[in-house]
Amino acid sequence: MENSIESSLTTMHKTVIVINLFFVSYSLWIVGAGQSIGNLLMVSLFFLFGVYLSTYTLMNKNRMIYFWDVLCLLSSFAALNIVTYTTGGYYSTYHFLYLMPVVIFIFDGKISLAKAFVNLTTAAMALCWLVQMHMVKHSFVIDDNFLYLLGVIVLMRFEFRILSRLTETVEQKILQMEGDVKIDHQTCLWRYSEFEKLLKGKVLQWKTEGIPFQLVIIDLGNLQYHNSKYGFKTGDKIISGMAEALRNALPSGDEAFRYSGDQFAVFSGADKGTVEEFINGLQADARRVAAKLDIDRLNLLVGCANCPEDACAEDDILEHAMNRLEDAKALVKREKIERQKRAEKMALVGHLAAGLAHELRNPLTSVKGFCQLAKEATGEPTVKGYLDFANDDVERLIKLINDFLLLTKPSAPHLQPLDIIDLLQEIIDFLESQARLYEVSVVMQIPSCFPLVMGDKEQLRQAIVNVMVNAFEAISENGQLNVRLYSLADRIAIAFEDNGMGITKQDISHILNPFFTTKEEGTGLGLAITQHIVASHGGDIVVRSEEGMGTVVTLYLPVLEEKVKHMIG
Prior knowledge:
Elements: H1 2-33, H2 37-58, H3 63-87, H4 99-106, H5 111-134, H6 145-182, E1 183-184, E2 189-190, H7 192-209, E3 213-220, H8 223-230, H9 232-249, E4 255-260, E5 263-268, H10 272-293, E6 300-307, H11 314-377, H12 381-408, E7 416-418, H13 420-430, H14 432-437, E8 440-445, E9 453-455, H15 457-474, E10 479-487, E11 491-498, H16 505-508, H17 526-536, E12 540-545, E13 551-558, H18 562-568
Parallel strand pairs: 8-10
Antiparallel strand pairs: 1-2, 3-5, 3-6, 4-5, 7-9, 10-11, 11-13, 12-13
Helix pairs in contact: 1-4, 1-6, 2-6, 3-4, 3-5, 3-6, 8-9, 9-10, 11-12, 15-17
């Protein structure tokens, strides 16, 4: 492409040169052959056209440049006259030398050279006049033929300048078109063809200079789902929005490309930690784009390859990154299948719970009431103790039924601006007696400034209570539960870190599943309910644990959007 552009421009320049030389040679031949009426008319037309072009160009905004053009024009007359004087006139055998100053003048585009040309030829012209007037008798220096050459020189000079500017304009247009071919208009990122070139360059740079790099492939995993649900216009907005986020988040010196329809590629020279922060920032941007377009969550999948750690050849680096991307896709697919299985299980449980709830609640309520009446009627302490045990079991069954219903048919959260610090403080005060019972101290680390969230206060209260009670039960005597809050780009995080016995690797993958529990009297619904509540708020729950080292449960919740702040502010 570049070679063809250079070839086209070179051909254009050569054409201009040939045309100018032809007109100059023809005009000189006219002058040398005699001044017939037709020849005079032709040269006069040249002259008038040259005056028109000079007037037009002198009105250009770059007046100083054209000022030096005029001076250079006058010096060309002087140079031509000097050659005429020193060679014996226009009819000498040296008349071909007359072309030299004209050609030099026409193709001289540098102001510095024009200045030097003006100074030298003006001095030489003055010297010739002095020699003619005081020392040597010679033909007139200023010959009549200059009147005819004037139009020719003016025409050639300004014709070339205008054609040169037209050529520059064409060159700019061609270069712009070339840039348009390299850049994807929808995303304003480099196209795949440029990606291939840079990959070769990066590998060569590693081999010659030892500069490592990372290749990051970013995939909009569920774009097809959004296209089918919301339409292709929304899909285009997703691509444009993520491309804009990618350009804004790109570390200095890194390059981004549109690798394919729903994939981007990034070459980064940063360290792994910086690249991880960059990817995490893009994940936050994906959530913002989804919220702005009011669509379901975007699944941003990433595959990375490091040169030279993972591979050093072009194909191997690309293959390594794509393999990791496929691993990420497979993981998402497995998680989706697991969620579907959980949903099916919940649907079955919900059906059973809905049928049993009505049948069990009324009898249990009756049993609870009769236990209370029997307790009041008897005077035996032993019997009262038995009735208390029975009443506690009835309440536990009623709570279990309520948990079933909440898990299988959770009510939609009533979202409102919420200060999560105040809510946490209320919950800690509420659970203070229970913490003492388990001999656990609760330490809360509160930042000085923390954003509001959009949430249902009662549902979030239940979610947090479930997590904290789970931690109390997992901690041995004289344990500690640290509650930390920190703010991310578009989310807040509440981390509950205990120093209990931790969770085994076999159990950690099932810890959020309904009915999974390692406690003798546990129902396995606490964290499952918490997960449902947090998910209904557009958040996430992450559990990290190592056996014997304690457990960290982190709840992520979206912050209050700026547009909502203005509405309530």
